[in-house]
């Protein structure tokens, strides 16, 4: 009994010490806040001490533009060749010659593309998937969005292979050299995934001009990280027996990599390809602001003109394209995971690849028919529909009948929740935030994490962006909190009921493939521009990880532990709260981490609807082509994400270690 009590006291002592440390730290921060008249520099970073990082970055970008313009022009020329080909093939026409004597070759027929989409879905997942993918393309055609959708698809069709190849080689390099992965690749990937999408556009606009090539490069940079991570993960998960067998068979290092390891990692690689496609589609929409055109540009113009119906139609076309590409790539990944291979002994190409052969034949025939029958070349207006008046009428009806209720909710939320929370965050001492976050890092993982977290937080202050940083933290924080408040209970309910999970899964799958623009449109219709609109759109966008990770975490608890609890006499309620929930907590916290990162990404896009934070800073920099200002604001946003990510990962690792 004495030994047990001594062990309990030993475990309790560090907890008591840390409670005392945190109480003292909070007391110090409170004293600093109360003495802000005497210590103003500790609350608001002095403007006279601001480090002009934005000016330095702007000067560097100007030097690059002046001295390396030959390089950027060469890159533009090289990348422009395949991009122009894809744009002409899918969205425009090929022009041979100049002037009146120019001969025009038609783009691919819309009928042929819809048929090819059906055949691709049929080959990957059967008739049901073929109907879904073909139906999505047919929907785009019938609602008059074909040309814009093909512009978007052309950009993706060039950007995605570039991302896959680049990510594959970077992942192989990082897997072979752990030091490079730790010191170079992982930090670079963290920055690439946390810097907001708008921030990518500014240097691209400055270096490569307002053109589709700029949009493609920005898209490629943003969408490459999932492929790098999937490659590293897939290669690390290849069973050691396969590696040993390849060496026993006498394979060289190159043969082992390309003929054994990469084929074995193919299912994980295909998941990376799926994520690349979805991120590329999301980025192409945003890149429409610097010359990409397509559906994103249509949404942007409609939002600026407050044309509700047109914005919804273009947004739904984006959704249809996203669903088609997502389901198709997922089906191919699933097929690879099952180890499906073609028969290498087939005597001819068309017998080995019947769907591909038929698709090519249909595309050729329908495109040639388009030379003689205009209905094959372009979608006839007689068969197209528009729902724009219906959307406008629906919004007007809701506004007229529920205006008082919506306005009362909006005003109450602003006055009672958002404004007080914003005032608290913006008034929080910068020195106190650096100190408290550094202390959290030290408690969770030691001195290295404490120094990293403190340095990244201090960067936001010393660059003169503290007030906007805290405005971002406030809006991201309240949105992530509400998303978790909604998502975690739904995930818990889904984990306890297979029937409820079958209802929830299609909904969160749909939310996951919706591009971020599409969350803004309906909310702007009802709540106008402002923080309330940004918060609601962000909650809808960021709620998916909270649901998915919670459900997955509960279901991944080993059945042996659940059986042991039942044998011990635990009721189902006790088993859930005392066994499953504590063991799933690290997984749930990973979901919270992802929710925060997704909320941060969405908050920046919500700068388009009137928020006053770092997103607005990036947006203003983009409109003025001020590279220094935009990149520094983008880095500040990225550092917020990295701080949250590192702290939550450290907490999760500690929880996993404690639970064994």
From TrEMBL:
InterPro entries: MetI-like (IPR000515), MetI-like_sf (IPR035906). Residues 149-329, 469-648 form the ABC transmembrane type-1 domain. It is a multi-pass membrane protein. It is found in: Cell membrane. Its main location: membrane. It comes from the Bacteria. The chain crosses the membrane at residues 15-35, 42-64, 70-91, 103-123, 129-146, 153-175, 195-223, 269-291, 311-328, 356-377, 397-415, 427-443, 449-466, 473-494, 514-547, 588-610, 630-648. Gene3D superfamilies: MetI-like. Keywords: Cell membrane, Membrane, Transmembrane, Transmembrane helix, Transport. The keyword Transcription regulation does not apply. Signal peptide: none annotated. SUPFAM superfamilies: MetI-like. Belongs to the binding-protein-dependent transport system permease family. This is ABC transporter permease. It comes from Mesorhizobium calcicola.
């Amino acid at each position: 009994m004495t030994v047990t009590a001594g062990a309990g006291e030993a475990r309790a002592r560090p907890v008591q010490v840390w409670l005392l440390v945190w109480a003292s730290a909070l007391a110090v921060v409170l004293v600093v806040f109360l003495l802000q008249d005497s210590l103003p520099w500790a609350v608001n970073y002095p403007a006279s001490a601001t480090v002009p990082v934005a000016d330095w970055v702007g000067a560097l970008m100007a030097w690059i533009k002046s001295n390396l313009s030959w390089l950027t022009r060469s890159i533009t020329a090289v990348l422009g060749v395949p991009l122009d080909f894809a744009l002409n093939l899918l969205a425009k026409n090929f022009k041979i010659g100049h002037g009146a004597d120019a001969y025009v070759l038609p783009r691919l027929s819309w009928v042929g593309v819809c048929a090819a989409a059906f055949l691709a879905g049929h080959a990957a997942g059967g008739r049901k998937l073929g109907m879904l993918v073909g139906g999505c393309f047919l929907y785009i055609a019938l609602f008059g969005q074909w040309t814009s959708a093909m512009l978007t698809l052309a950009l993706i069709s060039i950007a995605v292979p570039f991302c896959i190849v680049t990510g594959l080689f970077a992942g192989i390099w990082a897997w072979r050299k752990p030091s490079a992965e730790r010191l170079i690749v992982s930090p670079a990937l963290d920055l690439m995934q946390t810097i907001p999408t708008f921030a990518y556009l500014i240097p691209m606009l400055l270096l490569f001009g307002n053109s589709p090539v700029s949009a493609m490069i920005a898209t490629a940079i943003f969408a490459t990280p999932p492929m790098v991570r999937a490659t590293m993960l897939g290669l690390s998960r290849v069973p050691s027996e396969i590696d040993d067998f390849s060496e026993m068979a006498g394979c060289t290092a190159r043969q082992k990599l390309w003929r054994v390891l990469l084929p074995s990692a193919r299912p994980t690689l295909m998941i990376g390809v799926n994520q690349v496609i979805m991120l590329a589609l999301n980025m192409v929409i945003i890149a429409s602001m610097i010359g990409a055109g397509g559906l994103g540009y249509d949404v942007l113009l409609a939002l600026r003109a407050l044309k509700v119906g047109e914005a919804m139609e273009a947004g739904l076309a984006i959704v249809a394209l996203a669903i088609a590409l997502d389901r198709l790539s997922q089906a191919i990944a699933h097929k690879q995971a099952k180890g499906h291979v073609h028969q290498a002994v087939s005597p001819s190409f068309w017998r080995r690849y019947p769907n591909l052969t038929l698709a090519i034949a249909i595309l050729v025939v329908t495109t040639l028919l388009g030379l003689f029958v205009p209905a094959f070349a372009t979608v006839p207006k007689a068969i197209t529909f528009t729902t724009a008046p219906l959307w406008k009428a629906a919004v007007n009806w809701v506004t007229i009948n529920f205006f008082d209720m919506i306005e009362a909710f909006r005003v109450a939320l602003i006055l009672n929740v958002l404004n007080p929370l914003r005032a608290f965050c913006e008034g929080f001492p910068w020195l106190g935030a650096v100190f408290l976050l550094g202390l959290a890092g030290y408690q969770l993982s030691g001195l290295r994490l404490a120094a990293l977290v403190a340095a990244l937080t201090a960067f936001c202050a010393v660059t003169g962006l503290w007030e906007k940083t805290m405005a971002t933290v406030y809006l991201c924080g309240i949105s992530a909190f509400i998303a978790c408040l909604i998502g975690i209970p739904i995930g818990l309910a889904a984990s306890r009921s297979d029937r409820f999970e079958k209802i929830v899964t299609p909904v969160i799958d749909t939310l996951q493939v919706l591009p971020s623009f599409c969350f803004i449109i309906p909310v702007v219709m009802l709540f106008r521009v402002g923080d309330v609109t940004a918060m609601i759109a962000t909650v809808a966008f960021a709620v998916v990880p909270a649901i998915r990770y919670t459900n997955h975490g509960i279901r991944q608890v080993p059945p042996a532990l659940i059986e042991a609890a039942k044998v011990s006499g635990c009721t189902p309620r006790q088993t859930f709260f005392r066994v499953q929930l504590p063991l799933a907590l690290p997984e749930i916290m990973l979901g919270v981490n992802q929710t925060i990162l997704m909320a941060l990404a969405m908050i920046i896009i919500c700068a388009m609807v009137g928020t006053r934070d770092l997103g607005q800073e990036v947006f203003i920099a983009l409109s003025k082509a001020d590279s220094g200002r935009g990149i520094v604001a983008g880095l500040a946003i990225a550092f917020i994400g990295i701080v949250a990510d590192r702290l939550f990962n450290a907490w999760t690792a500690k929880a996993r270690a404690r639970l064994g």
